[in-house]
Structure prediction request, 208 residues.
Amino acid sequence: MNSKRSPIRRAAAAAAAGAALLALAGCGGNDGTADRPGGHAAPSPSAAASSARQTHNAADVAFAQGMVPHHRQAVEMADLAASRAGSAEVRKLAEDVRKAQAPEIRTLSGWLASWGEEVPAGDGTGHSAHGAEGMMGAGEMARLEKSSGKAFDTAFLELMIRHHAGAVSMAEAERAEGAHAPAKKMAGEIITAQTDEIALMEKLLGRD
Prediction:
């Protein structure tokens, strides 16, 4: 009796094993979840590419394209102070502006290049069309270049206060509307640094 039933039992065991394998295959499927903790599917290549494209938006581009010429003009103004400023305080302020903004120009230009966007060309004069607020006109820059001593200090401080106020406004827009985390971080740093410098310049003008 036992010898006759043995093949039947072996066949049943094989069938059960096959069913178990099919069940496991059905649970794992082809979605890549079987070997991932928690059963979460890996993102598809198209989803990853879409995420990468969303790391910046139009506000980030506008911020970078506006701030590059804006910073260039501030650096130009700061360079004038080295030989024209009458006070050590104004020369020190101008050097701080140059040291902070020259590296930011390179960073902003690098972002634009990596995004396939136009990097504004030329110097910082006459680029208000890019949306850079508080920019000096060519005539104002020419008058600043021709002044020296106390007259230069006063003109430099008054113009740079306006210039900084424009940068703060642009940075606030980036903080509110931008998507690129490094750009939003830079915007926050600009707001803090240039607001503090505006307060210093007001003090140097005797307005505080």
